[in-house]
Write the structure tokens for this entry.
Amino acid sequence: NLTEATRLTGGVRYSLDNTHLGNAQTTYCLFGDFSSPYDAPPPPCQSLADSGAFDGLFGPTALPSVQEQWDNVSWKAVVDHDITADLLGYATVSTGYKQGAILERGDNGINGVEPETNINYETGLRSKLLDDSANLNFTLFLMEYEDLQVSTSQIINGVPSVGFTNAGQARSRGAELEGLWQFTPTDQIGGYLT
């Protein structure tokens, strides 16, 4: 409590994420590939191998053990103030984090996504109306992302595939108005506009 009507809130979070993929083998086939973990032989492309036409192209390939580690410090700071007994104003700055991922591995190294981070700025009003039977809230927000993780659609060996990649920077900003009215002990109506 800074004063009777004004409060300051803060917090910090430390994250440490480890991802480990053990040894594995993969077999590449005409319509995709089949993988199995921990050195177990993957299912063969039997009809192709028996034909002899694709010798050497579809045999099992050893995949090395890989490990990735990410860490992050996220934080949040909020100040809120009772403008009146029924009206609260606030402002928040906070950061966020989503860990990276290993998508695939092979002779060319590791393919993955980097961690996503963001910073969020928010300010608004919270009000109580009609003897506390209703409330009306207004919010302004701005979120800025670095290394945003997005899903992608691509063709690999003629087969549609869904993956993930880092899209770089992104921004989300806007305003929100939200209301709720409890007009009888058992009935309420609410709505929002964003």
